[in-house]
Design a protein that fits this description.
The chain is α/β, with parallel strands linked by helices. 44% of the residues lie in helices and 14% in strands. It has 24 helices and 19 strands. The strands form five sheets. Strands 11-12-15-16-17-18-19 form a seven-stranded parallel beta sheet. The chain binds one DNA strand of 29 nucleotides through helix 2, helix 4, helix 7, helix 9 and strand 5.
DNA sequence: GCCGTTTTCGGCCCGACTGTTTTCAGTCG
């Protein structure tokens, strides 16, 4: 177990994965064997989806991850202890870091980049532009005018490229794309697959799968869309476009009888598909989007549904949210996958705001909207007094308590009285215990002093868990998807405290948060923690954020039993009472 | 470099599309 105060360079999983991918690419540039550098790619993927690396190292569990053996484990440990590693330093002696600019240009892969570097010394975007300007590139083999034109376009796109797109925005864009496709030639089925369907927090591109008997006509309709800023590829069954801003949309159209194969193939992830195909190959079955080929008999099995695909391979059906290549295949072989929580299991939502704090709909509108969703109960959780103008003081809180009970009755829903109380820098709360004791539910969140040291933040969160009146830790890491990685603390220590004290950890469904992140929730479950899925809605329409929260819970492998707000009201009250009585 | 429901050594996913080519290498997902 990692102790407080140990001098570790705390690289996040994402940072470690990025460095492993850098090693992978530079090794390929250096001409290392294929299966050597791809091993680093697979390891990077495993790290991205794993629990916190520092905790895994401390627990001696690094080698448990698929694709990580002794050599790569040593590299990861070196990265964690020093922030750097000899392997990467050596590679950077040969290639400057700006080589990744060249590789970032769409259409330039490792082979081309290596040739450009060796023959012309092109090691940056500026070098590349100068070489094109000077007409040097035409000397290269297979470098015709069209390739050079595409390269110029790729450079422009690289410069103006936006980052990965947050899940909620990508879902909205996918809906727009599919609405357009439906206006064209007849299609049987149409669905957004890829990382979007897996519920990843951000997506790099949007994959749309479609079945139709008129593929060519559908493709033609698609590439002629007025929102298509550029057409990157156009074939008989597949096309790719860029939207304004650079988001790529891929459309694949096949006949309806292979819908299951098609959907499985394009839902991925890459690592999941590789593992699935390697597994299948050992049974002499070759899996692709076109069907399952039996290499011995030559028979092709096509599947109308994904369930049939997994069944044909002798596997339990694997839900999309679990297809990240981190051991789900092993579980499926043994029929041991968890039965994931579903939206329909959720009986209430503990976290929403009204105009009493910083929400945009008034109390009655929020309560009516919660009732309209069919919830049995919910709670209004405004901010606490320390938030100044947007927060409630104890008198306002008491006034609201009367009000919410009346309104709940009027709308035939149990409206619990709650508050999202600030956790102050020392771990105490923004209300004294006697005020908290009047509430049905207490959500406690960090909103200030987010740059505290790891030790201070760890103690702060543990102290909040230890308060007998705290029911839920709200958005536990504070991460903001596009801008902030989250405050630093000892995850294992806080998860253990949450489990020990009977404090639930929130999976906050606000589009910019999705916090706890799924890999951390997965880790917290190992400590026996309980969770909630909440919308953190600031207006009535945002109550649907609960769907994003459920998706993240599913990615974490959580079941109905792991959550608090899948329980009947009695069960919720018992959870709260148990913690309060234990403390007394 | 990793890994085993054929293997601790000998394998390692699959196919579409492009641009350049007269048969394919490179890129991408």
């Amino acid at each position: 177990m990692l102790r407080l105060g140990e001098a570790w360079t705390l690289l996040t999983n994402a940072e470690i994965a990025r460095k492993l991918n850098e090693i992978r690419t530079l090794m390929e540039l250096a001409g290392e064997p294929y299966f050597k550098f791809t091993a680093y790619e697979r390891a990077a993927s495993a790290i991205e989806n794993a629990g916190p690396v520092n905790d895994l190292i401390a627990a001696g569990e690094l080698l448990v991850l698929p694709g990580i053996g002794k050599s790569i484990a040593a590299t990861i440990e070196e990265l964690c202890s020093s922030g750097d590693c000899g392997l990467l330093r050596d590679l950077y002696v040969r290639f400057p870091p700006t080589i990744f600019e060249v590789l970032g240009v769409s259409g330039i892969g490792v082979k081309t980049a290596a040739t450009l570097f060796e023959r012309f010394g092109i090691a940056s975007l500026a070098d590349l532009e100068a070489a094109i300007e000077a007409g040097k590139l035409a000397e290269m083999p297979r470098m015709g005018p069209k390739t050079i034109e595409n390269m110029k376009r790729g450079i422009l796109a690289y410069k103006g490229r936006s980052r990965r797109t947050p899940l909620a925005r990508a879902k909205a864009i996918a809906a727009t794309v599919m609405a357009y496709v439906r206006e064209g030639p007849p299609v049987a089925r149409l669905l957004a697959a890829g990382s979007l369907r897996r519920g990843e927090v951000t997506v790099g591109d949007v994959d749309i799968v479609c079945t139709s008997e008129e593929a060519a006509a559908v493709i033609d309709w698609f590439v002629r869309w007025e929102s298509a800023h550029a057409v990157l590829a156009e074939g008989p069954t597949k096309a790719s476009i860029w939207l304004e801003g650079g988001l790529q949309i891929d459309l694949r159209v096949l006949p309806d009888h292979v819908y299951g194969n098609l959907l499985q193939h394009f839902t991925g992830s890459r690592e999941h598909n590789i593992q699935l195909r390697e597994f299948s190959l050992r049974k002499s079955l070759r899996v692709s989007e076109n069907g399952i080929l039996n290499l011995e008999s030559g028979d092709v099995t096509t599947c109308a549904s994904e369930e049939e695909v997994y069944a044909a391979l002798g596997l339990q059906f694997i839900p999309p949210e679990l297809r990240s290549g981190i051991g789900e295949l092993e579980l499926a072989k043994n029929n041991a996958l968890p039965r994931l929580v579903e939206l329909a299991d959720v009986r209430g939502d503990f976290h929403m705001h009204s105009t009493w704090s910083d929400g945009r709909n008034d109390l009655e509108e929020m309560i009516a909207a919660a009732a309209a969703r069919g919830y049995e109960y919910h709670s209004i959780s405004e901010h606490s007094q320390g938030r100044g103008r947007v927060g409630l003081d104890p008198a306002e809180l008491r006034a609201q308590r009367q009000k919410v009970r009346e309104l709940g009755d009027r709308h035939h829903i149990v409206t619990l009285c709650s508050n999202e109380v600030d956790i102050l820098p020392d771990g105490s709360l923004d209300f004294p215990d006697e005020v908290l004791a009047e509430l049905d539910i207490v959500v406690a969140s960090v909103h200030s002093a987010i740059n505290q040291s790891r030790d201070e933040m760890t103690r702060r969160l543990i102290r909040a868990c230890e308060n007998p009146f705290v029911t839920i830790i709200g958005h536990p890491t504070g991460r903001m998807i596009e801008s902030f990685a989250g405050y630093e603390f000892d995850y294992d220590a806080v998860f253990a405290a949450a489990a020990r004290t009977g404090t639930a950890l929130e999976i906050d469904g606000q589009a910019g948060r999705l916090d706890l992140p799924a890999p951390l929730a997965r880790r917290a479950k190992e400590f026996g923690a309980t969770f909630t899925v909440d919308s953190d809605a600031h207006d009535a329409t945002q109550l649907e954020n609960i769907e994003l929260a459920v998706t993240q819970a599913r990615r974490a492998g959580l079941t109905k039993d792991d959550l608090l707000n899948t329980r009947p009201l009695d069960g919720v009250r018992a959870f709260v009472a148990a913690k309060r009585s234990r403390a007394a």
